[in-house]
Amino acid sequence: MHHCSIDIANGVIRYARSPRRLDGLLKEANSGRSLPGEEVLSLAREMAGKGYEVMPIGCDHFDSRGYCLGHEDPP
Ligand SMILES: [Zn+2]
Q1: Is 62 exposed, middle or buried (0-12, 13-18, 19+ CB in 10 A)?
Q2: Is 90 exceeded by the pLDDT of residue 3?
Q3: Chain centroid to CA 35
Q4: Are 26 and 32 in contact (CB under 8 A)?
Q5: Which pLDDT value is given to residue 1?
Q6: What is the pLDDT of residue 2?
Q7: Rounded alpha-carbon distances, angstroms, from residue 66 to 31, 60, 75
Q8: What is the whole-number distance in angstroms between the Cα of residue 39 and the centre of ligand 1?
Q9: What are the tens digits of pLDDT across the range 6-47?
Q10: Spatial CB neighbours of 63, under 8 Å, sequence gap ≥ 6
Q11: pLDDT of amino acid 28
Q12: Is the pTM of the predicted complex or chain greater than 0.90?
């Protein structure tokens, strides 16, 4: 199974002027709280600065650009 991921440039940064469109796009891993658009943007910029192209969603196995590398199917 492959996780979906969000294109940082086309899916997040392009909405920098209308952060309401990004509300709830990501959830905080620990609390499950939906992140407001402003936090999604700052996270995306931070990741882009580290060389990521996409933001992995609910994925703990991804390459240096953020793409899911796939997972073993549960038995
Ligand atoms: Zn994954």
Answers
A1: middle
A2: no
A3: 11
A4: no
A5: 57
A6: 66
A7: 22, 10, 26
A8: 22
A9: 999 999 999 999 999 999 999 887 898 999 999 999 999 999
A10: 69
A11: 85
A12: no
